[in-house]
Amino acid sequence: MKKRKLKYLLAGGIVVAALAGMIYSGVQESMVYFYTPSELVQKKDAVQGKSLRVGGMVVERSIRWDPQTLLLTFQLTDGQGTVFVRHKGTAPDLFKEGAGAVVEGTWTPEGFFRSSNIMAKHSEEYKPPAHPETLESKKELFKSILKEGKP
Amino acid sequence: MGNWGFVGLAYGLALVVLVGYLVFLKGRLRGAGEELAALEQESGRRTR
Amino acid sequence: MGRGSLATRVLGGTAGLLLAAGLYLGLVVVPPDAVQGDVQRIMYVHVPSIVTAYIAFFVVFCTSILYLWKRDLRFDAVAVSSAEIGVVFTGITLATGMIWGKPTWGVWWTWDARLTLTAILFTIYVGYLMLRAFAEEPLAGARYGAVLAILGFLDIPLNHLAVYWWRTLHQPSSILRPGGPSVASDMLLPLAMNFAGLVLLSTYFLVERVRLERLRHRTAEVRLTRGRRG
Lengths: 151, 48, 230
Description:
The complex is a heterotrimer. By secondary structure, chain A is α+β, with helices and mostly antiparallel strands.
C-alpha cells in the first residue's frame, strides 16, 4: 500500500515539476513578453545588457537595408517613445513599415537596440485583398501592442 | 518553402494525426472485443 | 466488433463530408488574405481545432465533477475518453500553429502567454492520461484524475483572456471577441464548415472511445467474477 502511494506521488511529482517549470520560465517571462519603446526609454539604464523584447510599430520610411553587410536598421514606436534597432540578417515577409514587430536582443550603451531576432506581429483581422487595409485594423494592432483595450 | 508548402504541411499533418488516431482507436476496439469474446467463451465452457 | 452502430457510422460519414466541403471551400474557393496571402488558409484548420479541443475538455470538466459527485463509473468513462480527444486536437492546434507562425511571425515558437498556456494545457491532460494509464488502483486513479481534470480546465478561460491581459505575439481571438468576428464574411463559411465537421468527428471519436472503455470494464468484470468462482 505504502509503495503504491509513493508511486503516485512520484508520477504526480514529475508532472507537477514539468508544469511548474513551464509556469515559472514561461509565464514569468510572458507576463512582460515585450516592453514598449517608451517603457524601454524610461528604464534603459536598468535593463542595459539584459536580453529582452521590444514591441511596437515600425516607423514609416525608417527601414534601411544594406545587402552588402546584411545590416538592417529601423525604428520602433508606440506613439510616445521611439527606439532605434540594428539587426544583422533578414526579417520575416510580413515585417514592413507601418506594421507591428517584436524584436529580441539587448539595449546597448551606444543608445540603440541590438536585435538578434525579428518577429512580425499581425492583427486578428482577416479579409480578401479586394478590401484594402483599413485604418481600423491598424488601430486594433496598435491597441494590442499598448494593451489599452481590455475586454 | 513557399506559402502553399506551409499550407500543405499543416493540412497534411492534421490529416495524418486524425487518420492515425482513428486507426489506433479501431485497433484497440478490435483487441478489446476479441479479448472479451475469448474470456466469455472460456468462462462459458467452465460453467457448463 | 470493430464496427460501431449505424448511427455512429452516419455520424462519422457526415463529419467526413462536412470536412471535405470545408477543405474545398477553404483551399480553393475562398480568396487569400490581404496581408498574409495563401498561408492564412491554415486558419481554417487551426481555429476549429482549438475550439473542438476546448469543447472536449469542457466535457471532461463536467463529467469529472459528475463522477466525484455520483461516483458512477459511466461518467468517468466519458471523462477519460474525452480527455484523449482533447489532447489530439490540442496537438493539432500546436502543430498547425507552429507551421503558421514560421512564415508569418518569423518563428516556429515563442514563449508568450497564449502559446505558453496552450502548451501547459497540453501537458496537464497528457499528465492526466498518464495518471489514468499507470494508476495501479483504477478507482484511485479516477478520483485523482477527476481533481486534476477539473483544476486543469481553469487554464482555458485564463488562456482566452491572456491575449487581453498580457502583451503577446499571438493576435487576439478573431471569432469570440468583443465586437464580433474580425474575419471577412466569405471567410467565415469554411471556418464554420470545418468547425461543424471537427465537432461531429470528435463526437464520433468520443462514442467509439467510450465503447472501448465499456469493453474494458466488462472484461475486468468477467475476470473478477471468474476469479471469485474458482
